[in-house]
TrEMBL record:
Domain Signal transduction histidine kinase subgroup 3 dimerisation and phosphoacceptor: 223-288
Reaction(s) catalysed (UniProt annotation): ATP + protein L-histidine = ADP + protein N-phospho-L-histidine
EC class of the enzyme, as a word: transferase
Keywords linked to the UniProt accession: ATP-binding, Kinase, Membrane, Nucleotide-binding, Phosphoprotein, Transferase, Transmembrane, Transmembrane helix, Two-component regulatory system
A cellular component annotation (GO) from this entry: membrane
Chain segments annotated as transmembrane: 57-76, 111-138, 145-162, 168-188
Name of this chain's protein: histidine kinase
Source organism of the structure: Actinoallomurus iriomotensis
Length: 433
């Protein structure tokens, strides 16, 4: 008796542990069949671990217990009457069918067919036949489930005739067999449909997560592109000016103290402005791309300061504005136009320092904003002592920026250099009324 109590106590402890694991699980996977969990659980443990879950073991034990209970109830009248040797054999075979139910997931068709056939002569296999039909309906096609159901109806009718239940009419037994078969088939198909829905939802969730990760990667790529574009647009001309004056100091050791002081002042001012511009870039990248800030809107209002900055390097800059109140220009258009002019002046001072440059800004709300940077082309233009290297992507970046703003950009010589032609950087940007 003490050993029996200890066995019951250990069984209760095992059930309590299993229940706690199921209740504290972070996902519903432990409550799913092992095969279904392998299809729906995205964690690698489901693929490398055992395919039999805690639920599988509990369901198998319950299925065997129910099949034995049903078989025992239907066979009890014959058992109470004192079964013969042949009847004892059929009871044992029927009980064996019940004990074989844990194999129904791997061999659903075989288990269902054998249990259904044996149930024709052994009522003890009746419960196993119904559960086997249910498994076929869950795991296999409707065609396989249909002929197993037909076998179940036929064996049920035969069993009701060969081994009738005392005090129960044959018609009632036949109706019970047909209804039980239909219930097992319908329930199995319903469970199959729900599992297929769960698998499809899990697959959809995986696709959504994959799309989300792809969107995150694309957003990061665009942010890196945006950072690179802002770094180039804002800092390239500063670095170019500093390099130009540093090169002049290197190649002109006989320069006067005034010239050296002026070049050093430009370098110092340029480095200070680079720090300010870098802080501006960081602030810009912390904002959303669509933010409508006052700084962006006032970008074109800073064109005179930009022109004066280049004049201090010795460039001859002529600024012509005929666009009304530049502060009212839309944010994207204003910032794009400012970067185009900034890049145009940087290229002009890099490739033809000292040559006159004309910057023209024209437009009205509703007609758009036109930006032009012109520089004469001459075969005798002054060569720089040091030509700072460029990245080679500035004009490409400007074209991309203008396209993103809804405008256009083109550049190149507009006439032969020997005829006094010009190099023109021209852009049109939208300016809605």
């Amino acid at each position: 008796m003490a050993a029996f109590r200890q066995l019951i106590r250990r069984g209760r402890q095992w059930l309590r542990v299993v229940s706690n694991e199921a209740m504290t699980a972070s996902a519903p996977w432990p409550l799913l069949p092992g095969a279904l969990r392998a299809e729906t659980d995205p964690t690698p443990e489901s693929a490398t671990g055992s395919r039999r879950s805690v639920r599988d073991i509990a369901v198998d034990a319950g299925a065997v217990a129910i099949a034995l209970l049903v078989g025992g109830l239907t066979s009890w009248p014959r058992i109470a009457a004192g079964p013969s040797g042949l009847w004892t054999v059929t009871l044992a075979v029927g009980g064996g069918c019940c004990l074989a139910l844990p194999l129904r997931r791997r061999f659903p068709l075989t288990v269902a067919a054998v249990a259904g056939a044996i149930s024709a002569v052994s009522p003890a296999a009746g419960g196993a036949a119904f559960i086997g039909l249910f498994s076929v309906a869950v795991h296999l096609r409707m065609r396989d489930a249909a002929w197993i159901a037909a076998l179940g109806v036929a064996t049920g009718l035969v069993s009701s005739w060969v081994t009738p239940v005392p005090h129960v009419p044959y018609t009632a037994s036949a109706v019970i067999a047909v209804l039980g078969t239909a219930a097992a088939l319908g329930w199995g198909r319903l469970v199959r449909a729900r599992r297929q829905l769960l698998v499809s939802l899990a697959e959809r969730a995986r696709r959504i997560e994959a799309d989300r990760q792809a969107q995150i990667k694309e957003a990061r790529r665009l942010e890196r592109t945006r950072l690179a574009r802002e770094m180039h647009d804002v800092l390239a001309h500063r670095i170019s000016l500093i390099s130009l004056h540093a090169g002049a100091l290197e190649f002109r050791p006989d320069a006067s103290p005034e010239e050296i002081a002026r070049a050093a002042g430009v370098i110092r001012s340029g480095t200070h402005q680079m720090s300010d511009d870098l802080r501006e870039i960081i602030g810009l990248l912390r904002e959303e791309p669509g933010d409508d800030t006052r700084t962006d809107r006032a970008a074109l209002a800073g064109l005179p300061e930009l022109a004066e900055e280049f004049r201090r390097t010795g460039a001859e800059i002529t600024l012509i504005t005929d666009a009304g109140d530049l502060v009212t220009v839309p944010t994207m258009t204003a910032r794009t136009a400012y970067r185009i002019i900034q890049e145009g002046l940087t290229n002009a001072t890099r490739h033809a320092p000292g040559a006159p440059v004309t910057v023209t800004v024209r437009g009205t709300a509703g007609d758009g904003l036109a930006v032009e940077v012109r520089q004469p082309l001459s075969p005798k233009r002054q060569e720089a002592a040091v030509v700072p290297p460029g990245s080679g992507v500035g004009l490409l970046g400007l074209a991309e920026r203008a396209l993103l703003a809804g405008g256009t950009l083109d550049h190149g010589p507009i006439a032969d250099a020997s005829d006094g032609g010009e190099y023109l950087l021209r852009a049109w940007l939208p300016w809605e009324a």
